[in-house]
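Researcher: Before we compare anything, I want clean individual predictions. No alignment, no superposition, just each chain on its own. First chain goes here; please echo the sequence and then give the structure tokens.
Model: Echoing the first chain and its structure:
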Amino acid sequence: MKNATPSYLLATIASVATVLLPICAFAAPQILFESDFQSGTIFKFTPDGTRTTFASGLSGPGGLALDASGNLFEADENSGTIFKFTPDGTKTTFAIGLNHPFGLAFDAAGNLFAANAGSGTIFKFTADGTKTTFATGLSSPTALAFDSMGNLFAASASPNAGSGAIFKFTPAGTKTTFATGLSSPTALAFDSMGNLFAASASPNAGSGAIFKFTPTGTKTTFAGLLDAPTGLGFDSFGNLFQASGSDGSIFVFTPGGTPESIFASGLSGPAGLAFQPARLPPAPPAQLLNISARLKVLTGDNVLIGGFIITGSDNKQVLLRALGSTLGQFGVSGVLADPTLELCDGTGAVIASNDNWKDTQQADIAATGKAPPTDFEAAILRTLAPGSYTVVVRGKNATAGVALVEAYDLSPGANASLSNSSARGFVDINDDVMIGGFITGEGNCRVIVRALGSTLAQFGVPNVLADPMLELYDPNGTLIASNDNEPSPLHFSEIRASGFAPPNLAEPAIIITKQAGNVTAIVRGKNNTTGNALLEVYTLPL
């Protein structure tokens, strides 16, 4: 389906997709691949640093990239070839006739992008090897990396000192300049929070650096005084591995930038790095790992109210967050400066509350790795018995603004799961529509998403949204499903059979079956109408 995202919603989808992070999707890295440029070899390292030869006899191996099936692709710079290696090391030729290919990266759809440094071109290859030109006119493109929204970032290592740049391409190919004034950027890598790291391999000894760019482009030095940093790669703990082409070593930096250790030495021109993560055992089908909702928090009956249900037999540890000012980093305007958070049980009784997250449970919340980024944002960490719960987000002292409420499942392996989530609030127009998100675990997950408006009046909710519309987007901002009124042909009989068909025919619902990942749901009023609405996600049997 073509991208039909309204332009005014692109920034809001980006903010939700960036803040939501999968929980426990991968364990520690199982294998690190390194391309040894001068020896024409690809080495394979276990987590303890044990090295074996994965492939040899190559001619200037550079960039590496792994597809979803664990096949390793290698850009052979001197021979102008891209080779494909199966997990057992079987080698085939994927593409030929290139001019000094180096950087490689896969998009979410499984297409391989290759930076052709000799011709200043970026090529796109489908899974069957069909080649098209994605971008031209670059000066020695060397490294590629995709962000969570499907934008491609390309490092351009211009031969003139200090004239290197990083360009950003939308999925449609629109090019903008992300950063300039770099000296021979040779590697790019994104961390789990959407920050871009760039290796600047200055030719002068000890003058290389790794720079960190926030999603908005703010630049800081992550590590300096380096000798020719080349390849970069993050493990699943957030440690950054850096290949040093000049001294034949691989260094490890902690998330805070501290050089942790030398992971490997005695290499010959290490260039590209690529991790093959070790997947955890598949999570149970139909399990939500993270749920969220974002809208403008008003006062009175128009605050943000979220809900979730825990099913199963075990207790479940859940982290709840209310974010406001953090959203401003992702282009969201009018954020809620000081959100407060309340957790209520199934009877409506308040069982926990928080204003500023550091006021209570600071050490425990920080230990989860999911503490709110600013001190004025709220969080609650609780172990909850199976049942239904409500979360209420308000502005301190009756203030208003845009906020995001989230629930993280911190014990996805337990005999309990988040089987339902909901959010209720006032749906306005433009940027102030209702935006929800959910992340599913490993394996297929079948869910029904519905938006209720007029039904809420039966429960005393005033000023309801008479005719809500529902849209679902993938992580790239591509519209994957939409619905206006429930009796549409879209899964009509399936929706009825689920037992969760909306009570009113003017209320929409969508059933989707998807693999692990995140989905963004948007509720807005038909013909720009406004009012209170309820967005719900229910898991269904496969």
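Researcher: Okay. Second chain, same rules.
Model: Second chain and its structure:
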Amino acid sequence: MAVARPRSRRSEARGRLLGWGLLFLLAAPAAAQEQAGLSPHGSLPLPCTACHTADGWRPARISRDFSHARFGFPLQAGHAAVPCSACHTSLEFAKVEASCAGCHRDAHQGELGTDCSQCHNTRAFGDRSTLQQLHALSRFPLEGAHRALDCASCHTSRAGASLAFRGAPTDCISCHRTEFQKTTSPNHPSAGFPTSCTNCHSTTTWAGSGFNHAATQFPLTGAHQAVSCQACHGDGVYDGNPTTCVACHQTDFSGTTNPPHQAAGFPTDCTGCHTTTTWTGTPFDHGTTQFPLTGAHQAATCQSCHADGVYDGKPTTCVSCHQTSFNATTNPPHQAAGFPTTCTSCHTTTTWVGAVFNHGTTQFPLTGAHQAATCQSCHADGVYDGKPTTCVSCHQTDYSGTTNPPHQSAGFPTSCTSCHTTSTWVGAVFNHGTTQFPLTGAHVTATCQSCHADGVYDGKSTACFSCHQTDYSGTTNPAHQSAGFPTTCTTCHTTVQWLGATFNHDGAYFPIYSGKHQGKWTSCAQCHSNPAAYAQFTCLTCHEHNKTDMDADHQGRAGYSYQSTACYGCHPRGD
């Protein structure tokens, strides 16, 4: 049995070389024909082997390595599926144009330009999504049901072209004129409806569209929203239909008897009592009038005030309804006392009985114990209007009967407020701070009798001497009276302490409590040798009194004189 021996590498190389040589021999005639200008494809820069094989010249088989894109026209989507002969009708392939118009007739007759790729592509000649995107950039973007329509639905044919695009009308009536003219409920043409259609219809749905009444001068609210168009437009009038209430509700207005609208002269706009939510049982809003209802008035029936049938121009004063109550009231007697007929001074709409007069609105607001006093306490005489507000008008007896101190004999003012308050009458304290002599220091605790034992209150002297005459005259160290001390007392004494007074010698006169004289003296008499005249003093008692020496020390000093008063002209000095 013979065993097949494997081929050597040399024999494999020899086989491959033989194969390439055979391929070259087969391609040589075609190449020779191209060079000789005999190729049916004209000038085609491809070897014949790209399409033809040694097995047969026909049929041609295009090599997988062939790239149509090399020639400037990639085959994509729909172009990749068509046979070569669909575009290459001639064997001279180079004669085919690369533009769309080379294969596709312009059905638009140049209306949309030569760039077919704006609307068409190789994936689908009529791509709806692309067309809709382009339409969004036009004057008429496609919305609602318009998006599903075929182009021919609106772009009808025009002479010389399959469809018309440029200049196509965008108004509704251009496509929907038939629907507009045939509509009878309501009858659009006879009612003068606008041809824009958008007031009632939308692109989402044509049938069953609703008119937007809110865009008119009469928006529908409440029960008006549920009524049919015929309820108000049964006369066929839509444009210019009146919007007043009485235009539809005249029968209701004329037939109403409780209250009688027509006889009472009620306004015909109806909105004073009625609303669009409900027509029956709607209450009148009295708050819109000059007399809003408050308190018990809110529960009163219309007949309570309008039994006379007067609604418009009805008086709003209290007495117009409450005259009988005003006249019959005896505690206090309103009519006899001349009470005002407004009633609001004491009464409120919440309750009529048990009214309380607000004294705070008068010239005499009640404070303190006055708040608890009864009306009779001050108005027992029946006088209310013009009643005097002075204290003594009620407290004359108290004023005249007071003996400690005796108000009347002492000439106390009758205003009483200087000492008394409305909080308490007994135990009044006079505020001395309101006088020309405010009490300070020990004066604060002094009794009234201490100064007013003579019964004088008004015009009492405020000089210290008027109360301290005895103290002034009896003082001997120093002797105030004989020395001619001033009677004001405040030079040495204060209201805090009378004894132990200190005279301010340093500030007003000559420093003896400080400087070189501090501790150099023991009594006032050392300088004031005349106790009956403290204005006199001597310096020569203590200081060197040799006139010759003193003259020598002060030689050349202007104004020098060997006298104590002359010393005081220059001294004290720091040296």
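Researcher: What stands out in the second chain?
Model: Residues 1-36 have pLDDT under 50 and may be disordered. Additionally, The first helix runs from residue 9 to 35.
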